[in-house]
Amino acid sequence: MHYALPYKTKQFFFVLIKLSIVVGAFYFIYQKLLNNDILSFTDFSDFLTKNNVFSTKTILFLLFLTGFNWFFEILKWKILVSSIKKITFKNALEQSLGSLTASLFTPNRIGEYGAKAIYYRSNFSKRIMLINLMSNMLQMTVTTVFGIIGFCFYILKYDPEINHYKLARFLVFVVLAIVLLSFGLTKSKFTIKGFSVEKIKRFIFQYSKNRLILGFTFSMIRYFIFSFQFYALLVIFETNLNYFDAMVIITSMYLLSSIIPSIFIFDAIIKGSVAVYLFTPTGINELIILSIITIVWLLNFVLPSFFGSYYVLNFNLPKHED
């Protein structure tokens, strides 16, 4: 015998889920700030207070960069998703910030895929997840291209100690894994979320090239913005590192930290560890680098997630006639 829950009970559980997401996100932010293994919140706040480098003008400038960073991310999502459903900039804003909050504490932000898909009817879900995958791949492509260039310059300039045997063995393993995986996928009926590999390839290759070019362009603009924001903080802390040398390290940092699997809430910890290693030859105080990493994380992820929590709490499932 089928028993349906009363409408009010469903609504209660729905509100409870939304509250749980917001509380979970805030709890992980709290844990990250208060129980950070590489930079305690006390040291961080004392360091900022002692240096007193943030004027009103400086704070507004950093917030301006954060706003533009997310503006282009939201615009990219609006352009990419419009291939299957036209949405307004306001809709894209709600979906981008809401999914950020919902995915903040999930491994590698994987929760973002489901969070964005839930804004659409079920018959759109799979395509929305594929578009989100393409969006992330575009950003990762930019990070990889500039990161490889930057890391090559880093090796030439600083000649870091690298175990070439282990590196070569790792690269061989990665190449073999990619080849075997590609061969296996083409020879099997492997499916991802109900989509066969052939259907995924067809979807990507038939996708609007103009939208992909726009998406890639917005990904590049975002990359330049948040990279420059990192450099601006180096200048604010008076590190006396010129723009080119700083970008060599910053691009290398984003490359190395992006290929390390992590729970997104600990992304700042991973970037902090990588950044400290990469900035060591410059002689810059470790506390400055860790503080900058934390500030960038607060500006670009924690602050937007506060706005995103509003959208999570006010979220309603899409109507049938949507």
UniProtKB/TrEMBL annotation:
Q: Which InterPro entries match?
A: L-PG_synthase/AglD
The regions listed as transmembrane in this protein's record are 12-33, 53-72, 130-156, 168-186, 212-237, 243-266, 287-313
Instruction: Establish whether keyword Lipoprotein is in the entry.
Output: no
One GO term describing the cellular component: plasma membrane
**Domain of life of the organism in this record?**
Bacteria
As for membrane topology, the entry says: Multi-pass membrane protein
UniProt keyword list: Cell membrane, Membrane, Transmembrane, Transmembrane helix
Tell where it localizes: Cell membrane
- Signal peptide start-end: none
Q: What is this protein called?
A: Lysylphosphatidylglycerol synthase TM region
